[in-house]
């Protein structure tokens, strides 16, 4: 008989990726972030386009894109820079270099909202890292493990792939509602502790091996 397939998702270090201590979303810097390789598959341009829309009327918010730009993606990157300059938002949408791995937890803690606009992912570990950091997250529906990590409307939001209007609406909903962001921050951390920790991953792997040994 064919054996059932068991999928054990990646875990994250919930002792490293933690929320800001005593962070009240109403007083935190209002920053929206997107991390990862800067290329079309990651949807970086979608993120930038959405920010150009939502930041225009919200001067207390800013955005940051962190990631490497390879030579083959340089034209793609330059096009986004020009778009930001044309929108008059060069002082509020920033592209920054990748931080060392031991500084990434701090990078998530500096955000009020994390966005994963990818068109394709194998898993999408940054979403789990953001949730463990207590950062409300907006991610693409049907991509990687996003649907499993995001409890839509609870610890984050899912938007339709490539739909800038949907992404814009989800962003505005969170940006303009401190209480909603605060509730999502709490739920983001809870969901990571319950479902995404390294202990949860290890226990699931041990369970697979134990069942195999019993067959």
Which short descriptors sum up this protein?
13% strand, 8 helices, alpha/beta, 6-stranded parallel sheet
Would you write up a description of this structure?
There is one protein chain. This protein is of the alpha/beta class and about 220 residues long. It has a single domain (about 30-205), classed as Glycogen Phosphorylase B (Rossmann fold, 3-Layer(aba) Sandwich), CATH 3.40.50. Helices cover about 40% and strands about 15% of the residues. The protein has helices spanning about 45-55, 75-85, 105-110, 125-130, 145-150, 165-175, 180-195, 200-215, and strands spanning about 30-35, 60-65, 95, 115, 135-140, 155-160. It has a six-stranded parallel β-sheet, sandwiched between helices.
Q: Kindly, what is the distance between the CA atoms of the first and last residues, rounded to a whole number of angstroms?
A: 12 Å
The overall average pLDDT, rounded, is 92
Helix amount, in percent?
40-55%
Largest sheet: 6 strands, parallel
CATH fold call: Rossmann fold
The stretches of 5 or more residues where confidence is low (pLDDT under 50) are none
CATH class: Alpha Beta
- The CATH architecture can be named as 3-Layer(aba) Sandwich
- Tally of individual helices: 8
Strand line-up in the sheet with most strands: 3-2-1-4-5-6
Percent of residues in beta strands: 5-15%
Q: Structural class of the secondary elements?
A: alpha/beta
